User: Fold this.
Amino acid sequence: MRSHYLFRACFAGAFAASFMSSAGAQCVNVQGDPAEGGLIWAKVTPGTSVQLDDQQLTVTPDGFVVAAFHRDAPANSLLRVGNDCEYSVTVAQREYRISRVEGVPQRTVTPPQEQLERIRRERQLVAAAKAQVIERPDWLMQIDGGFVWPVQGRISGVYGSQRFYNGKPGSPHYGVDVAVPTGTPIYAPAAGRVTLAEPDLFYSGGTVILDHGYGLSSSFLHMSEVSAKVGDELKIGDLIGAVGATGRATGPHLDWRMSWRDRRVDPQRLVPPMPKPMPKPEPDKSTQE
Assistant:
């Protein structure tokens, strides 16, 4: 692994700011996407104490640090680097889409009593997988790469939207949905270690969690097939499984989610725009009578 990393500049609303100490000297250069669902990062002297609001941030051995803002983050956060550097980060606020989904199996909208223990157990599995601290900086994308789409297709759902299932309000949606046929291969959007691989969770169906290191992870939901296994070390582009419509889903799609610690990140802000589909070739009229 290289000793120096650079982030690919494909983040929506990417910025760079040099924060100054009270004495007027530059103390840290912060880059990234200071918005609800966005990430920021910086390079500091290894061993430096860094805090965002009330959270102590982890600094890698090379001196990199990353943090995220959740869906309903306040408009301002305070970043502290060492003893002399403080900066108020302005967090861009977003408007979210409201949508209504009908035809969802009623048992997943209002789970029957006999399923509550299963749901509780599965939530514990997911929480334990995300709670692991893997000290590998796969989120430090090398200069010749970055996060890529795990599948390509029509975006049918976006981060932060509020959904009503069969008329009942649900929790905000924390992923990006890509509608593609059942069986479409799903590939790793970045390197990481598989910490969860379950074929049939109550809400999310076939589910895989891929940990990119230092608290940043990807989750892949509603899969028809789970190819990856817990402990697998995946490279960008490695096969994870296949798209499906398992769990709480009305049609085949991939629900790709990302988290940093307990904060939900918008995956769409870490990848280039979805490629447009190739136009179908026109028929060769010269061969037609």
The chain has two domains: 15-90, 98-269. Residues 1-13, 20-25 have pLDDT under 50 and may be disordered. The chain has two helices and 21 strands. The CA atoms of residues 84 and 286 lie 75 Å apart.
